[in-house]
Amino acid sequence: MGGSTAGAAEGSQATADVATAVLDAEGTVLRWSRTAEELLGRTADEVCGRPVRELFAERPAGATADTRVLATGGRALLRHRSGDPVDVTYRVLRLQPATEDLMLFAPTQRVIDWEQGAHVLAGLLTQDRIAFRVHDAHLNVVLTNIPSAASGAGPVLHPVAGAPGQTSAQGAEAAALRRVLETGVPLVGEYLGTTARIPERGEVSLSAFRTGCVQGTPAGVVALYLDTLGQQRVRRDLALLHRTATRIGGSLDVVRVVRDLVDILVPAFGDLAWVDLADAVPSGDEPPRLAGGGELHMH
User: Is the bond preceding residue 147 a cis peptide, omega within 30 degrees?
Assistant: First the structure.
């Protein structure tokens, strides 16, 4: 009368977690997938030919009491072979011709995880402060919010799906991503400097983590690029303050103090600096006090 449909091991991990059942117009189970068997502990021989309502621990919201027992979708408790309830989220699709329905159902927690993952991805795609790329196991770009150089786009403001034509990572970046892919150890804040692969960015750092394994094989790696130009400026300012504190004020010799000051100013603030001193100052004397007009003799 019916049978089990294989495919859990043949599809992706996401679709492998979705159980399916084909129902006739009266709500009788005609087909029962292998994933459904695993989810409820009931074989196709046990389920096919029986009303699907017998699988529900309680009538789902919107279900009718007579023929079509299911609404178009929602959340319900199914009954496991052991008697334990199984919390699922389901959807019913009308097949053509309209004599059969396809029921898709999965554990509710898995559905919540998928929805949260989709929201996170949408959030990454629609912002411009963090650039990211999703690489496959060969480090080819499969998804990114970074426009390709060929597109001539400006700042990242809109998602660029699929990333056709974008090359895989190269050099030190490729080595870092491959290390993450092989070891599974996340990478946090590795400095890359200025790279042409991240248009409209200054100096960037790379963070990366490996995506889930399917049958023991990593699916790929996600790379996040943060613009560190502001951080680099802060570090340079702190280094300048440190140099200033350690070099200036260590001597009472005027000429040495002036030279130390110029060494700090160049190249931090410019390419050239000079200091005008009254002739009396290098010898340790006070500059003359002038009453009325006149000019100091500068050294």
Answer: no
Per-residue pLDDT of 119-174, as tens digits, reads 888 887 777 777 888 888 888 888 888 766 544 443 333 344 444 445 566 778 88
Tokens 């094989």 correspond to: 217
pTM: 0.57
Of the chain, the percentage scoring pLDDT greater than 90 comes to 23
Contact predicate 138/61, CB 8 Å: no
pLDDT tens for each residue of 212-241: 766 678 888 999 887 776 666 666 777 777
Q: Can you list the domains of the chain with their CATH numbers?
A: 3-107 (3.30.450.20), 126-227 (3.30.450.20), 229-299 (no CATH)
Q: What is the 3-state secondary structure (H, E, C) of the chain?
A: CCEEECCCCCCCHHHHCCEEEEEECCCEEEEEEHHHHHHHCCCHHHHCCCEHHHHECCCCCCCCCCCCCCCCEEEEEEECCCCCEEEEEEEEEECCCCCEEEEEEEEHHHHHHHHHHHHHHHHHHCCCCEEEEEEECCCCEEEECCCCHHHCCCCCCCCECCCCCCCCCCHHHHHHHHHHHHHCCCEEEEEEEECCCCCCCCEEEEEEEECCEECCEECEEEEEEEECHHHHHHHHHHHHHHHHHHHCCCCCCHHHHHHHHHHHHHHHCCCCCCCCCECCCCCCCCCCCCCCCCCCCEC
User: Does the CA dihedral 141-142-143-145 come out positive or negative?
Assistant: positive
Task: Encode pLDDT of 175-221 as tens digits.
Answer: 899 999 999 899 988 877 655 455 555 577 889 999 876 667 888 89
Backbone angles phi, psi at 247, to 5 degrees: -105, -35
pLDDT of residue 168: 60
Residues making up the chain, counted from first to last: 299
